[in-house]
Write a structure and sequence with these properties.
- It holds the Pfam family Aldo_ket_red.
- The protein is built from 12 helices and 18 strands.
- By secondary structure, it is an alpha/beta fold.
- The protein has a domain of 189 residues: NADP-dependent oxidoreductase domain (TIM Barrel), CATH 3.20.20.
- β3, α1 and β4 form a beta-alpha-beta unit.
- α3 packs across α5 and α10 crosses α11.
- The radius of gyration is 19 Å and the shape is globular.
- The two termini are 37 Å apart.
């Protein structure tokens, strides 16, 4: 089977805040390499990462949480021989991994590494988490460092205890790493935009990795969060563009459709079905619309779907480059299926898709 065509020259780049660091607008989410929901072998992992590199992917995001170290190890094994090559790597801090024995499943990851997580957002905890990640990766650099899962979605009422520690000691550590040039940009990696908005009052952040909260199904962040990002010159990297599956698979012929890591409600299923009807009218793939939509916002620098098998590499490239007529987006707005204030991608008649700035 032939390798997918190189696409690195076709993927636009955007700058992260005021850092001077540029990232590809289409990135590679490495959570599936940590055996998210199902196990893949080391050989399968290598095949996926090699196919991604050959296809031109240069923006990779991983975390200690993904397989309790497994994703970082696999990602580092691929990138290590490529030292000196142009790639951008992000990982996350805030979880310390401690020996816990082997398990069939932990935190949604199948056959993870024999560790469990201990949250530590203190100055010392962030520094140790960063150093541990470098060792698991086997690399001497992480370009973007995110503080992971600081928010009520993860900690509930306990977040009232964690957040002040994170914004004082944790932020101090990350800012120090940035000033020393050990990382190029710092931010939060979370599933809720509210905590990012709150964090902007406590530090000078370069970017936020926001999973699922600015998507074809969710635009609440347009009200206050994204305007605040523009004011602070803070970039957003969108994870989970398919809202954990439903915008990739659609709802037709599906007995269960997953939305934000749980079975979708009847209301969400009905909404997606209506979007699919308009997709049919304009011959647009639902997943292509979901992948391209967030990038139209001026604060969004990149979108990073999780990719866990070789076939998804080429398919994602095709979705990213699929031409979507301007009328499609206007029809979604007219049907109240998309916020009327949301920026949308612009299709050029001569050059194909251009992401609106």
């Amino acid at each position: 089977m032939q390798n997918p065509p190189l696409i690195n020259k076709q993927i636009p780049k955007k700058q992260i805040g005021s850092t001077g660091l540029e990232v590809d607008t289409l990135g590679f989410g490495c959570a599936p390499l940590g055996n998210l929901y199902h196990s893949i072998s080391d050989d399968e992992s290598k095949a996926v990462l090699n196919a991604a590199w050959q296809a031109g992917f240069r923006h990779y995001d991983t975390a200690p949480h993904y397989g309790q170290g497994l994703s970082e190890r696999r990602t580092g094994d691929m990138l290590r021989p490529l030292q000196g090559k142009q790639y951008m790597l992000s990982s996350k801090v805030g979880r310390i991994l401690k020996p816990a024995g082997y398990a069939k499943e932990r935190h949604g990851f199948v056959s993870p590494m024999p560790f469990d997580i201990h949250y530590d957002y203190s100055y010392d905890g962030i520094m140790r988490s960063f150093e541990d990640s470098l060792q698991r990766l086997g690399l001497d650099r992480i370009d973007i460092l995110y503080m992971h899962d600081i928010g009520r979605d993860t900690h509930g009422a306990e977040n009232a205890k964690h957040f002040p520690i994170a914004m004082q000691g944790g932020y101090k550590a990350m800012d120090e790493l940035r000033r020393q040039g050990l990382v190029k940009a710092i931010g939060l990696g979370v599933n809720e935009y509210e905590v990012c908005e709150q964090a902007m009052d406590h530090g000078d952040w370069d970017c936020f990795l926001l999973a699922g909260r600015y998507s074809l199904l969710e635009q609440e962040s347009l009200k206050t969060f994204l305007p605040k990002c523009e004011t602070h010159n803070c970039s957003v990297i969108v994870g989970g563009p398919y809202n954990s599956g439903i915008l990739a698979t659609g709802v037709r012929g599906k007995s269960i459709a997953n939305y934000n890591y749980a079975p979708a409600s009847a209301e969400i299923i009905e909404r997606v079905a209506k979007i699919e009807t308009i997709c049919d009218e304009y011959n647009v793939t639902l997943a292509a619309a979901a992948l391209q939509f967030p990038l139209a916002h001026p604060s969004v620098a990149s979108v990073i779907p999780g990719l866990g098998n070789v076939s998804r590499i080429q398919k994602t490239i095709e979705l990213f480059n699929q031409s979507i007529p301007n009328e499609f987006w206007q029809s979604l707005k007219a049907a109240n299926l998309l916020n009327k204030e949301a920026p949308v991608p612009i299709e050029s008649k001569t050059t194909g898709l251009e992401h609106a700035n």
